[in-house]
Amino acid sequence: MYTVTGILLLWTAATFWAEYGGTQKVEWVGDESADKKALVVYNPDPIYNLDEQVCKSFATGLLKSGFTSKIATTGFLKEESESYDLYVFCANTYNWAPDWLVTRYIRNHPDLEAKKVVAFTLGSGSTVRSKRLLEEAILSRNADLIGSKTYWLMRPNDEGRMKEKNVDVVNDMVMNFGREIGRYMSDSNL
Questions:
Q1: How far apart are CA 140 and CA 106, in angstroms?
Q2: What is the pLDDT of residue 33?
Q3: 103-120 burial by CB neighbour count: b if 16+ within 10 A, else e?
Q4: Which CATH superfamily is domain 2-187 in?
């Protein structure tokens, strides 16, 4: 009985630490005065920064289409009032669900209706439920979900590139996806 209680207490403490333990920061990729802007939101993982790397790689891919991106952690966006052409939400998976601060930001954002949105679900390897919940949170706000991808820290992301470091493969894939979304937005005149 004490062992089970101890494990549950430890699991709960680790969950709260992971959900709320990351460093808060903001940075721009591209010229802040550009006409096309994206807001890239994530809650930093306190152990490994795959989320930050994914956000930067995606923003770099968007840059090829003339986008500038504000990459910010949820802590810097409490009163974000500026409007963007594209919103990107990158959520880590904890306990088979997207992290709380990203989903809370989506739920509380003043105006996501009809906005173009891209979602990233990250995890060690089991992300099916988390991706579904993240997409549901976005769609519940009547946003236009134009892309949703899942990437893993430990599980292979591309079986054809097993000799490369998995994180390098992820960043390459995400940068290419950023280029694809940037072209789509530009071709659609959005």
A1: 9
A2: 82
A3: bebbeebeebeebbbbbb
A4: Flavodoxin domain (3.40.50.360)
SS3 string of the chain? CHHHHHHHHHHHHHHHHHHHCCCCCEEEECCCCCCEEEEEEECCCCCCCHHHHHHHHHHHHHHCCCEEEEEEEHHHCCCCCCCCCEEEEEEEEECCEECHHHHHHHHHCCCCCCCEEEEEEEECCCCHHHHHHHHHHHHCCCCEEEEEEEEECCCCCCHHHCCCCHHHHHHHHHHHHHHHHHHHHHHCCC
Lowest mean pLDDT, pick from 32-41, 57-66, 171-180: 32-41
At 140-163, the pLDDT tens digits run: 999 999 999 999 988 888 888 988
Q: Which two tokens stand for residue 125?
A: 């390897």
pLDDT per position as a tens digit, 9-61: 554 544 554 556 567 788 999 988 888 999 999 999 878 889 999 999 999 99
One-letter amino acid at 124 equals S
Quote the pTM value: 0.88
